[in-house]
Amino acid sequence: MEQVIILSEWWKSDTEAVINEALKSGLAPNVSDAHTINGHPGPVQGCKSQEGFKLDVQPGNTYLLRIINAALNEELFFKIAGHELTVVEVDAVYTKPFKTDTIVIAPGQTTNVLLTTKHSAGKYLVAASPFMDAPIAVDNNTATATLHYSGTLSSTLTTLTSIPPTNSTLLATTFTDSLRSLNSKKYPARVPLKIDHNLLFTVSLGINPCATCVNNSRVVADINNITFVMPKISLLQAHFFKIKGVFTDDFPGNPPVFYNFTGTQPSNLNTKNGTRLYRLAYNSTVQLVLQDTGMITPENHPIHLHGFNFFVVGRGQGNFNPTKDPKKFNLVDPVERNTVGVPSGGWTAIRFRADNPGVWFMHCHLEIHTTWGLKMAFVVDNGKGPNESLLPPPSDLPKC
């Protein structure tokens, strides 16, 4: 049997209104009022649904839990009291199985685990709580549910579990470092070894002038100091029909200025606005190092790439060292996924092959960061012949 587990956030106000109010003020949005597991926060004072979500199980069976982080702005820990979880898949790609009592999952990520139940009845607490190892406000409410064995008496007390401290960096790092691709004959890890594009992207926050905002300034976000500006028409249409003036393909492959990214922040926190893309030839290979910075504050950024899976070949704390760090890359069985966390005050290196023609966004999966402009796009040119070329849009495609 299998069960989908959706972890999320809940606000007392409409989320669009929360985001719009933040944009109007130029400040960060209010944190959520609750976390939820399959739509229920668990026992919360003043909430009509006191019990929360209940996962019914039979003793002595194995269940596949498909866990999804659908939260807007927070990474989450997930655990079940008295039970180990066997991780077998992330972002729809098999992993080497390993056991853990706690997983960490970022917005936009999925994790599939096997849960083997005990041979006796009982009730066990299921918990989802925030992970944040930077000085940033989070919703500290823990969402709870119940793992409920058949035959358990209603009077049976629920077995509880301890909640990880919010700033449990070691726990999160240990989990992340345990992820490995199967790299079997049936499921090989085809890691690009020869690299055509060697890129370094800083992921940052910034502050730009805003006459109508609080403090006459607005918090923004950027990649390589460029805050992305959404175009008036679809980038894919502009690319396919060669419409001029919609975007430029001059996104920089490196930061405009090199400094101690994870040290003292520069005095100038302004960014440049632009709709700038990075162009890739079909089937070219990319190594991309995503570097967090201390601009305003360091933070763990879950970065999602559309159109491709990638291999996470390395990660570390501090500034990426292009001479020393690649020597420690895992090019044998790195985990393959489509959303990766860039650690607070650190870096992550990914590799992928650009074998999917079109225009593909890459963005932070913290909703407010994407809204603030922490995104860019790759434009991948056609290859040879129809099988390596972008299909034309359907005749009834609605106008953007």
From TrEMBL:
Domain Plastocyanin-like: 3-151, 251-383
Entry note: cofactor: Binds 4 Cu cations per monomer.
Name the UniProt record assigns to this protein: Laccase
Keywords, alphabetical: Apoplast, Copper, Glycoprotein, Lignin degradation, Metal-binding, Oxidoreductase, Repeat, Secreted
PANTHER family to which the protein is assigned, alphabetical: LACCASE, MULTI-COPPER OXIDASE
GO-annotated molecular function: copper ion binding; hydroquinone:oxygen oxidoreductase activity
InterPro entries, per database record: Cu-oxidase_2nd, Cu-oxidase_C, Cu-oxidase_fam, Cu_oxidase_CS, Cu_oxidase_Cu_BS, Cupredoxin, CuRO_2_LCC, CuRO_3_LCC
Record EC number: 1.10.3.2
Cofactor(s) essential for the protein: Cu cation
Pfam families to which the protein is assigned, alphabetical: Cu-oxidase, Cu-oxidase_2
Compartments where found: Secreted, Extracellular space, Apoplast
PROSITE patterns reported for this sequence: MULTICOPPER_OXIDASE1, MULTICOPPER_OXIDASE2
Superkingdom of the organism of origin: Eukaryota
Family: Belongs to the multicopper oxidase family.
Function: Lignin degradation and detoxification of lignin-derived products.
Originating species: Vigna mungo (Black gram)
Primary location group: secreted
